[in-house]
Amino acid sequence: MNIIIVTAIVSLLIAAIFLAALIWSIKDGQFEDEYAPPNRILFDDKNASKNK
Amino acid sequence: MIDLKIACYHCGDPCSDTHLEIGDKHFCCAGCKLVYEVLNEHELCTYYDLNAHPGKSQRHRGREGRFAFLEDEAVISSLVSFTDGKQTHLTLSVPQMHCSSCLWLLEHLDRLQPGILSSRVNFSAKEIFIIMDPGQTTVREVVETLADIGYEPWLSPQGTKRIAEKNNVRAVQISIAGFCFANIMMLSLPEYFSVAGYLQDQIGAAFRYIGLVLALPVFFYCAREFFVNAWKGVKTRTLNIDLSIALAILVTFLRSLYNLLLLDGSTYFDSMSGIVFFMLIGRWAQDKTQRFLVFDRDYRSFFPIAVNLKKGHEITPVLISALKEKDIIEVYDQEIVPADAILVKGKASVDYSFVTGESLPKYIEPGGIIYAGGKQVGERLELMVIKRSDQGYLTHLWNRDAFTEKDGKNSFLYRASNLFTLGVLLLTLAAGLYWFVRGETTLMWNALTTTLIVACPCALLLAATFTNGNVMRILKRSGLFLRNAGVIPAMAAINHVVLDKTGTITLSRDFKITYRGRGLAPDQVALVTSLLRHSTHPLSRAVLQNLGAAPAVAVESFRNVPGMGIEGWVADQHLKIGSRQFVQGDTAPDAEAGSSRVFISTDGMVLGFFELQNTYREGLADFMERIQEKTALSILSGDNSAEYPRLREMTGPGAVIRFDQSPEDKYRYIKTLQDHQQHVLVAGDGLNDAGALRQSNVGIAVMDRGGHFTPASDAIIRGNVLTRLDQMLEFAGKAAVIIKVSFVYSIIYNLIGLYFALQGMLRPVVAAILMPVSSIGIILITFFLSEWYGRKLRSGRA
Asked: B207 vs A8: CB contact, 8 Å cut-off?
């Protein structure tokens, strides 16, 4: 039965990694601006865009 | 008279004529055209491809050299966050950004100004973060570059506030609490189904200890703000809401610890984490505010950072705070006078729209006093400061210590939760006493702690926070932005609504224009528009816009007479356009029946006049009728009583209408109403309403354009939804109903829980089921009831 305890702890640790990733992204400011990043990716940066 | 409208390629405003064009692109003003030229030269025209007319009108561009103060080290250091000689980091607030074109352009600044290494936009905060090379460029040049393309940064002496940090902490707390809550519940499964006795014996103890480890961060980190607030309450001897919550968390935690370590019994860590998790979510939903709206601006936000000080012949930029009495300062076109001052040199035409909401300029001759907050339109002025910036006529209204406590201390929630806390404590004591008398001490301790756990007022608090969150969200969707949740009960209690006139119920920049007199032939219209194009007076601009596009005729010579009008020679005719006195030569009073008139004459013969009347907001009369069914109504105006008949017609006989009200009068009027037990809501837009807004129970600032500065207030409303204020007030009143419904619901649950708890036999499984079901139930009830009551706000115009 001890194996259940071990697996429970291991699964908790794995989940904790994801929690850490979430906290990292929060601290990194990923959720601060919900407009700029989704739009930024749509800009194709060809250099010339001169109108006549 | 308005025919086909040509939209400006840059900003989309209608062009009054076709004289500004490049290729097939038309521009409304030289400013817009200039921006286009700059962008085109630097191959940045993707800006125009992403969105049609992405720009903001550039009709009012500032003076060259107005950023000279950015050479000053003290000013620079307030903007710069980091510099090492190779790189300088600065964050600027750019309220004009509004679309993906703005985003694109602002992140390609390096093409415009090689000294800028990179620029990155935070769109929700309306900020731009720039890394520049101090060897190649200066802060001043960067700011000027931004201003050149129509994104003049808003430079405030207070600097940019950082509220992101606090939001981040809460998000982290919620994540951890949620993680621990879910995992403790999972680990408690064997305990819930303790029928599986074999399993329970084997692993139950280990799982409980893991649960303890998971509960520690929740108790010590996530729940911190409850303990801190509760402690503050204890220190000031006030019974606050967080006290009961902190007590429940503390008791649950200690009881579980005691059970675990000494009795080897069951734990309630899942309940505890659940309480913390749901409470934190509730607080988050309630505190979520608009980051780009600022509710507590003081007078300084309206003033420039620095001003040109003249000493002898030397002119140096100094910070406003360094201004002293008798200093001579320079003020240019479109600049705000930072302190009460006497006009020394130049002809002032001061636009007090910031101050009074009135957009027509006042003319002041040398020797006259100009109050701080007015904006000069026209030539350069020299002024002598008579009062320091922080002691001016208007600023003292801000500084007045009229800040009323608006944290909802008298609200239903506050009273209810106090009663509830008291009730729970009494019940707990009674249960404990009962078992003590019966001599069953174990059961007594059981009953004491579990009653507190199950009957903690969390349900009530959850109901309140989630209801407030939902109400604020729905109001925000319909255009009313609340400063905090405390405004909701204050709104519900309102029984007197006071409206400012100019700019609040009227549209300050929109006139209803009618022409009276001899008909104007098309060629005469062309003459008039050609001459008017040289006038900067708002009335001229309004008439010009009204006349629409007409072919341009060369103006041979013209002369602007401040406060009077404009005259000039156009196509061999002598045109005079302006006030009655100016055009007709008599001195009869000009303004009749609340309108302004613009007269026209050619070669000395008066043709007729344009009558410009304030336009009221659409649906205003209906709104006033509706709102008077529930509350008293007053209208205060700084103007003369010319508009009285029209206004009275709309309000009906019941409303109070007062004219010639100074800011001080408005403030006193509110105070008088409050002394007569009235709960007053004030809606106003100008600095002149600041005192009244502050004194009121609910002060709402009216905002017509994005990025416009609003005075300090409890809420900000979009101008176009002002006429739905009555529905919003009604909706705010419903918040208490929603809380009561959720409250009844949670009482039912609590009674079931109490049935077990009072007998001292609450099993963890009961606690574990009751707690989340009641919390989630409350979340759902508040959500659906809020949407139901708010459905009226949703329908119709947004």
From this structure: yes
Kindly report the length of chain A.
52
Contact A50 B43 (CB under 8 A): yes
Instruction: Phi first, then psi: give them for residue B380, nearest 5 degrees.
Output: -70, 140
Task: Give the per-residue pLDDT at B161.
Answer: 46
Helices B241-258 and B224-235 cross at an angle (nearest 10°) of 120
Does residue A49 fall inside a structural domain?
Answer: no
Q: DSSP assignment of B329-349, as one string?
A: EEE-TT-B--S-EEEEES-EE
Statement: residue B721 has pLDDT above 80: yes
* Structural domains for chain B: 6-50 (no CATH), 68-148 (3.30.70.100), 165-290+409-468+733-794 (no CATH), 299-399 (2.70.150.10), 508-616 (3.40.1110.10)
Nearest to A26 among B121, B122, B171 (CB): B171
> What is the count of structural domains for chain A?
1
How near does any CA of chain A get to the CA of B273, in Å?
Answer: 16
Going by C-beta distance under 8 Å and a sequence separation of 6 or more, which residues neighbour residue B510? Answer: B615
Residue B51 has pLDDT above 60, yes or no: yes
**Residues spanned by the domain of A12:** 2-40
pTM of the model: 0.72
The answer to whether residues B758 and B440 touch, using CB atoms and an 8 Å cutoff, is no
Q: How far apart are the first and last CA of chain A?
A: 77
Domain assignment of residue A23, yes or no: yes
ipTM of the shown complex: 0.85
Ranked by mean pLDDT, the top range of B172-186, B296-310, B429-443, B549-563 is B172-186
* A5–chain B Cβ distance below 8 A for any pair: yes
Say if A48 falls within a structural domain: no
User: To the nearest whole angstrom, how far is the Cα of A41 from the nearest Cα of chain B?
Assistant: 10
* B528-564 b/e (C-beta count within 10 Å ≥ 16 → b): bbbbbbebbbbbbbbbbbbbbbbeebebeebebebbb
